[in-house]
# Entry
Amino acid sequence: MTGRGLQNQPVKRVVIAGGGTAGWTVAAALAQHLGELLDITLVESDEIGTVGVGEATIPTIRTFHALLGIDEREVMRATQATFKLGIAFENWAHPGDRYIHAFGTIGKSTWMGDFHNMWLMAKARGFGGKLGDYCFEWQAAEAGKFAVSDKSQINYAYHLDAGLYAGFLRKKFQPKGITRIEGKIAEVEQDGESGYVTALVLENGTRVEGDLFVDCTGFRGLLIEQALGAGYEDWRHWLPTDSALAVQTGPTQQFPPYTRSIARSAGWQWRIPLQSRVGNGLVFCSEHQSEDEARAELLGNLAGEQLTEPRLIRYVTGRRRKIWDKNVVAVGLASGFLEPLESTSIHLIQIGAMRLMQLFPFGGDFETLAARYNRLSHNDFERIRDFIVLHYKLTERDDAPFWRGCRDMAIPDSLAERIALFRDSGYAYQAPDDLFSVTSWVFVMVGQGLMPTNFHHMGALLGDQRLRRALDSLKSNIAKAVASMPTHRAFVDGYCAAESS
Amino acid sequence: MEAQKARKIVIAGGGTSGWCAAAALARHLGPLLEITLIESDDIGTVGVGEATFPTIRTFHGILGLDEREFLRATRGSIKLAISFENWARKGDRYIHSFGVNGKSTWLSEFHHFWLAAKAAGFGDELGDYCFELQAAKAHRFVTSENSPISYAYHFDATLYARYLRTRCEAQGVTRIEGKIGRVKQHPETGFIEALVMESGERIEGDFFIDCTGFRGILIEQTLKAGYEDWSRWLRNDSAVALQTDCPLDDIPPYTRAIAHDSGWQWKIPLQHRQGTGHVYSTAYTTDDEARKVLLDNLDGDIRVELRLLKFLTGRRKSAWVKNCVAIGLAGGFIEPLESTSIHLIQSGVTRLLRMFPFDGCCESLVRQYNEQSRLEYERVRDFIILHYKATQRDDTPYWRDCRDMEVPDTLAQRLELFHESGHVFPDADDVFRIDSWLQVMVGQRFEAKSFHPVARILSEDRLRRMLETLKGNIATAVAQMPTHREFLEKYCAVE
# Structure
């Protein structure tokens, strides 16, 4: 025992129920940073599959990896990973439409206003081109190019194989003091009075005692819901899809450095390029499409050799009413589910793990810390929810009942206010607790066809000629930088090719 | 796109608010606007806010002000901190500085390490690990371009308004001398169309900025925005202020806030004089008694006679109504305990520029502005209340009532979290950083029962060494700086 006063630490034994991305992320983070203070046990069963839909990520994953000391090339090699500069949305506003939600910034903003106001002024005067012309990441994505260097400011994330990712974390961090127990959980033991969880009893009779439990058991929420009854807030009235079919296809010669999200008749299809294969799936609403119809639509829209049979996943979009209840903290799907439209699942896991470390209840002060943890986590979920709802609400499609329903649905007030604000004044903002930046909001709102009627007149200060010159020079600098980059494929081959591919 | 709807901007009232608004608009949107400012030499400015907050330097960057020129013009001095005396208990003193405490990690803030050391019986004062706080204590200061030091200013607010006015007039702002007689509204929409002066002159505008102070001639008397009364938490309602000679050989680079029996007294050192005043509640003392307390606690001869101010702490329910936005005291009043008045002015002006209603005042924009403004006032309010709530004084009814009051939920949650677990977190939209919350909570003897044991990962030896090194580095750096007085004489003294 190192350190002082450990005898005064009532919470020492952490039991993580479930492996997968969630379980191993939490275990790795705790072991890396608080390992000396804790006994960490992870219970998982090889017989229970992981959901593993979340194969695309957002740039915050790089911060998380840096905190865990994970080397980029190593993790990319181990997970067949490729780079991701954004998401291409196809057919969302109208059939045939396409825009990219890129991770970068747009043009040059000032303290007084964001760049898109200048662009809107140019559009009003009859020039200015496309908004994406002023975003480096957008242009690189479009050109299929990618490179990182010590100097580059490029903002990116990864596509990765979630199954391999959990394995990578396990291999790397288990030796740092994580006890892994193989087995299925048969029973959750609770204190008769307080209801606090005291131990997990496995099917083989093993009893795993703990002070704090992390529920990573997925949709079932074995501890948080089945034992504690934390409750679930159903958001299907805003996000009506409830099913996904996932299938893998063979690798392609060139892989785009972005995820594709293609709107279909009652949902949307993803394409996530890895080094060795392509992940595909169709998210749909069972009220408007049967499983057979969905399967036919998915299989009819695959490129490349089909490697697996489609796997069906059912879900209820929403969030656990208490993500931390008593001495159980839910991470991952046990805490809530938002469809992978903006690739936020792994982010929510990582932010959950970090927050748990920051608010770790060493002293047994569960309630005060849980209140804070829940307030922040609930907020995360709601902000992301609003951003996802935005994509559906702003559709102008009326070619299918599903899309008409989305277009006409009532939406959360917080989102309605944002849309009105942008429409009427061009003002977009990232609230202090927002995950998505002004750029993200603007890309999606403009991409979905919401062009503000009014905007900040900062562009008028320049006058037409100077405004035109400023925009042209931004555009050509980006074009030049993109032209000098290697293709995404060539870069991946040289930087992080997986051993087996 | 239609023609720009808001072109003629009328600012009602001068003072710090009016001239800050005019200066920023003229510099950044000048070519697109016609800016008129109306003020009367007969109406004095309140000008309590002579101490400021570090965000003023960002605002000055936006205005393109030269620091030396500004300090010379306003007889300004440097402010690194506020020294709170007699707050938690009589005889206590702590410093709330603008600096950062020690070195934090992403996992836990520095103070957890300090709390761990305290629990083990060493570690000294939290303030030992803050550069600005030590510099303030030593009355030392120096700056250079891109200096990492976090600081603000003390200055003469009347000279400040004059300084900004000169710049504004050179940038095309029209100043009209006179008093506002009445406000002409559109008969149907209620939008303001013009201000009619006592002389009969009519000043028309598309957009109006109310800088008329407490009265709120446009925002309240005309547009009836309403006022949220916060006096149940912040019970002071009066201040008596005067100026004295500066008797000190050396000028402290901080404001002093000295608690008295039914209020507190500020002391703000400028280059040539000291501003001082007593803020108090008439529910607990009288104007006469309050005046006597002030006169009994002066450091030098009186230069400018006593002035009495009456106020109601609170916030205008809507800072922006129709085509009028209130800036400064017309938007709300929070006592100058943490020198936030000028910050709130400048933040309001910056927000207005970012959300400027070129094409008309659409409702969603107005709501967004008001929401941001509300949050900002409430965050400041909570921080001020902290100073009163976290007192242990029971020597007067005033302090007993402060100690026993119910506080807003937002503040109660923060206090509970710190008390239970030692955690302090920045909240969305916070004006004050966690370093500020900590320095004040610790300074007010508000204790944490527990702390983040990540600090325990360090052995006692390493923890002790880490703290000693931090402290030593700060002490060395502070010792190398000139005194504040020496700095001012060299940098910006008035010939």
